[in-house]
Amino acid sequence: MAKLDIINVPDPILKTTSTPVDRVDGDVRKLLDDMLETMYAAPGIGLAAIQVAVAKRMIVLDTAGEDDEKKPLFLVNPEVTWESEERSVYSEGCLSVPEHYADVERPASVRVKYLDYNGEMQEGLMDGLTATCVQHEIDHLNGVVFIDYLSKLKRNMIVKKVQKAQKDSVVL
Ligand code: NI
Question: What is the DSSP letter of 45?
Answer without folding.
Answer: S
